[in-house]
User: What shape does this take?
Amino acid sequence: MLDALAATQAVRSGAASAVEITEAALAHIRARNPALNAFTEVTTARALAEARTIDRRRAQGETLGPLAGAPFAVKNLYDIEGLVTLAGSKIDAERPPAATDAFILRKLSAAGAILLGALNMDEYAYGFTTENTHYGAVHNPHDPAHVAGGSSGGSGAAVAGGLVPIALASDTNGSIRVPSSFCGTFGLKPTYGRLSRSGTRPFVASLDHLGPLTRTVGDLAASYDAMQGADPRDPACAGRPIEPASPILEHGASGLRIAVAGGYFAGSGIAAEAVATVAKALGATRVVDIPEAARARAAAFVISASEGADLHLADLKTRARDFDPMTRDRFLAGALVPAGWVLRAQRFRRWYREQVLALFRDVDILLAPATPGPAPRIGQETIEIDGVAVPMRPFIGVYTQPLSFIGLPIVAAPLRKPGELPIGVQIIAAPWREADALRVARALERDGVTNAEPTLG
Amino acid sequence: MPDPTDIEAYVDATAQLIGLPLDPAHRPGVVLNLGRIAQMAALVMEFPLPEETEPAPVYEP
Assistant: This one.
């Protein structure tokens, strides 16, 4: 499976047609998806129609978009015209089909990318493991006994399994960065408000972000660039001018002040080793403490529970049995959260934002683990932390939650030792400085520090 | 750490107040999860914030 930019190059040069690339990708999905359970719908007819359009436009000498002929797929909380947007739920399967594509999906289509289908996820994005009871667990392409992460587990498995070079996802508390870490892909969670969320099923409006997962930093930047743009239909979309990262991707990390996040983010085991490896490669020796990160995670936890439950309150009242048992009791509990806790958490967010922005006055990039360890096994309930067994699933987000809480742009970069499961490192930049994080990720990729090779199968 | 009995009483009373019927089979899980949220909230609530720290809403009239 070609990377997205390589596929586009092949189409432009005539080395392959868009139809040939699409048919190869569809064949690979048919062969490999049954073992991974990444796709919930494969849009074969649409994909071939889009590919034929690209080939016809090339034959007519028209200008092709920056991702012409590159296959992609989207988490099934993105609206796809003519399909029902499941958001991982059984309840939403009763909804009418979507009338139009989600905003950023349209942007990728306009860039010439070919939509191949919809991807599995945790119900309503409330999870870190994609052990979906309705649609089945997603299996990690590196070891099918392990989870792919969540809530965008189908996105992680589709990219790591070589089924598509680009998968769109969402990240409220870590749902792009966790599957990137567990599956060994690159992932970008842009600044809160950078990409429009219109046409996607919300989870927590205060914290929801959208972004891509890919196997190369070039594809990450190209897809991110193509999806930027103002959209009044998402009130949180900041409507900033388009700031393309691709043209400066090769500038490398020089000139950027890079520090390691200490204290709360120190991590242990292979998570700490991965950060140390990246820091060494970048020559970063400084350690900076992000103050009150544990409280930031707690505040994100409280806001997520409450806002998430509010969205689904009518269904929780009338048909709680139809929720996935993996999310149901958390949604029900969230409906009961006292208002004072949520308001204080929102006020804390403002305070914490000021503290972290102050850190960025003399640092450009912070490094932190993406997950406490590699992918746990499917069905695993606990994880041992300093000799104490704690519930595994909520703990997965310990390093991602305090950062998305204030909307910082972050690239998850994958490391992998031979014979081991992958693990990700978060490359964290100041608000609206996605390009800084992408430049660092590209430098690591170029120097062979990262490893996002797809698994064979 | 809130008293588990308090959590149970709160769950029953608040569910009734907001009109959320709780299946007896779901109740233990709801109590467990509200207890987890309460532990998280305690971390936030014990932290003193300056009065002038307002939330950062996106709302624009």
